[in-house]
Predict the 3D structure of the following.
Amino acid sequence: MSDLVDLSQCIVDGDSREIGRAKRVRGRAVAASITLETAVVAGLLLWPLLNPAVLPSQPILTPVPVFHTAPKEEIVRAAQPPHTQEPTPSIFDRTLHQPPQIPSHVDTSGNNAPPIEYGNVTPSPFDGPGSGIGDGTEVTQIARPATGPRPDRPIQRSGGVMEALLIHRVQPDYPQVAKEIHLSGNVELRAIIGTDGIVENIEVVSGNPILANAAIAAVKQWRYQPTRLSGIPVEVETIITVQFRME
């Protein structure tokens, strides 16, 4: 009986030790597996950094130019032979024609009248002024350009156009106050240039008031060539720019 008790006790004790040893083996296996996987992942991450030469090089792409073909109409036009233009016959015919009637005798009495009545002769289709054919009695009228009425208001012209017609310029006096405060700039004036080239009706468009008075005083003394429209002098409205610069 005591032998059976000892045997059962040995079996129970053996199972406990086996279970504990199995747990320890599994724990070691799991730790070894985790350590191995960690080493493999770290190696895969560090290997490209330690050996950059193994990285694949980026391909170099060269753009290919796009060639556009000519339109179909131009290709067909280029294939056709060049068109040769036929010479246009001149309207001035220099050919001498036989008179419709031949006189029976030559008049030597000194009469300069022509022996043939030209009123009965049918005119040639090429007769006309300057053609060299005719009896010389035609009178050619030269058309003169029509002169219209003078416009009732001044015409608009830019400052650059009127600058070319300026024949007398007076430089403005630099105001003493502007010199003391080192004031400079441009003054734009709207003015009417009369038919005699005198500047009239001056108005300030922009600019410092200190400089504007000096600009107006100078522009009043300017003279322009008269502007003509169809040969008639007309008034012109323009913008005049006066510059003030410190020397």
Q: What stands out?
A: The beta strands are 155-156, 166-168, 185-193, 199-206, 223-224, 227-229, 232-234, 236-244. Residues 65 and 130 are 62 Å apart (CA to CA). The chain is about 30% helix and 15% strand. The first helix runs from residue 2 to 50.
